[in-house]
Amino acid sequence: MGPFPTNIARMWLRSSLGGLSRVTAVRIVAVLVLCAVAISRHPTWPPDTLWLVALLVAGVGSRAFLRYLAPFLVLFLLYFVLSGLADDLNPTVHYMPMARFDMWMTGGEELPTQWLQRHMWDGELRWYDFYFYLLYTAHFVMPLVVALLVWKRRPQLYWVFVGAIMGLSFAAFVTYVAFPAAPPWMSSDYQYIPRIHRVSHDIWQAVGIADPDTLYSRLSPNLVAAVPSLHASYPLVILIFLARTFGWRRVWWAAVYPVSLWIGIVYMGEHYVFDILAGVVYTLASCALAFWTASLVRRRRERARAEETLAEAAEVVDAPLDAPGEAVPADVPAGEAVATEGAVGGR
């Protein structure tokens, strides 16, 4: 009786994994081990970074993956590392410029965050609190999902998308170094602005996290990377490329994603409206630069192909033509050849 369950388990594993290659099986085991180690050590890794590393491990060995997705993921991981260093390079944090702009927008009465919380926050979590925060936490996952869609649907747009995302990200990193900016919740904690409620704390406590401050410091290595808001920028990039990939009539409803996130990050006290507007400007500039660069590269390739075609045609034209006498076989007398030509002409 003892070996029977073991044999059943072996048979089940063979039937389940029989269709998988050894390389694929190793990838699956590596990803599961990586996730298990990360979870066992508590969430010391940001979830987005964990997803990126898991995808890298899962895709090792695939030529298509190494050619297309691996560079994207490596650049993303490089950005994560650099963004964690930005606040160490410049310790001067700006608290008030963004708040003054938002106050100017509302006529100096109250911040947009205060207005939203006055109408939407009553001390208890609602469904939209979880909705907003779910979009907020999917910050770096959604670009990867859309990258896969663009890659499969419109491969010619894939590197344009990658260029727009990475150009935007590294431009934001440079800004984070030059202009460290505090989010509203931090300015409120240090009493630079009126008191606002940090909704994300209540969400973390609702899901069983007893110390949200410690967890948040681990999830966000740079707490003063607020201007521009990449939480506002990435959804707009995604919307632009979904429209270019599938057509605006098919994806118009996807505009709910950036608009919802823009409202949510202001409502939760994670960003000012100023941060969002800066993110929109950075997004439009990076997308325009990416499309312009792609167009320039395409024109140069077309010009190079045209020049190659002309060069090949010139070689054909310049090739020496056979002399008329060479077309007559050597064993045919010249007189007979002339007579034959005359007979043909007579006909």
With helices defined by DSSP (H or I, 4 residues minimum), what is the helix count? 17
Number of strands: 0
Order of helices and strands: HHHHHHHHHHHHHHHHH
Which structural class is indicated by helix and strand composition? mainly alpha
Characterize the biggest β-sheet. none
| Helix amount | over 70%
Assembly status: single chain
Describe this structure in words.
By secondary structure, this protein is mainly α. It has 2 domains: 19-61; 63-310. The protein is 73% helix and 0% strand. It contains 17 helices and no strands. The chain has helices at residues 3-17, 22-40, 47-59, 63-89, 97-105, 112-120, 127-137, 141-153, 155-178, 184-189, 199-206, 212-219, 230-246, 248-251, 256-267, 273-318, 334-346. Helix 8 packs antiparallel against helix 9 and helix 9 (155-178) crosses helix 16 (273-318). The longest helix is centred in the last third of the chain and has 46 residues, at 273-318.
How are the secondary structure elements laid out?
Elements: H1 3-17, H2 22-40, H3 47-59, H4 63-89, H5 97-105, H6 112-120, H7 127-137, H8 141-153, H9 155-178, H10 184-189, H11 199-206, H12 212-219, H13 230-246, H14 248-251, H15 256-267, H16 273-318, H17 334-346
Task: Give a short overview.
The protein is mainly α and 347 residues long. The chain folds into 2 domains: 19-61; 63-310.
Keywords:
2 domains, elongated, disordered C terminus
